[in-house]
Specification:
Layout: E1 2-7, H1 13-21, E2 27-34, E3 43-48, H2 52-68, E4 72-78, E5 80-82, E6 87-95, H3 98-115, E7 118-124, E8 127-131, H4 135-142
Length: 149
């Protein structure tokens, strides 16, 4: 089961956990990302390209399901304006064993950070700036391209 959602409404962690657990496997690993208040960020606004963003997230989820034989891959991502402390992203991987679930959840977050078309704008006081993906985001995503042995 794959579930992808790009939404303006807050992420309901309890509902997403119920969805993940319903896939019926031995392990569920999750990651929840929060808006940080780095250097005085007051608002983070995300924009996306409807249709293309969901397709990119689906491709990331399909890659995880195939690679780790997951029974579920869930990606829920917020768009619109958000305040520090709000949930911006939730991923879950459901697998027979914890190792696969943990690796797959890391893969999901690492790949979506660079593979899905989102644009971020941070506002600090009266100043607003668009934010590019960091070098660390690209390095984290690239490590999954290495051959597995």
């Amino acid at each position: 089961m794959i579930h992808i959602s790009v939404q303006q409404s807050p992420i309901d962690i309890a509902a997403e956990m119920i969805r993940a657990e319903a896939a019926g496997a031995g392990a569920v690993a999750t990651f929840t990302g929060l808006v940080r208040a780095d250097d005085g960020v007051g608002t983070l606004e995300l924009e996306h390209y409807p249709g293309a963003t969901e397709a990119a997230l689906l491709k990331v989820a399909q890659g995880a399901v195939a690679r780790w034989s997951l029974s579920a891959a869930i990606i829920v991502h917020r768009v619109g304006p958000m305040q520090p402390g709000e949930r911006i992203v939730f991923v879950a991987a459901t697998a027979a064993h914890r190792g696969a679930a943990l690796e797959a959840s890391a893969y999901l977050i690492d790949r979506l950070k660079t593979d899905a078309p989102f644009w971020k704008r941070e506002t600090r006081g009266s100043t607003s700036n668009w934010v590019e993906a960091r070098d660390g985001d690209h390095a984290a995503a690239a490590k999954w391209d290495a051959p597995t042995n």
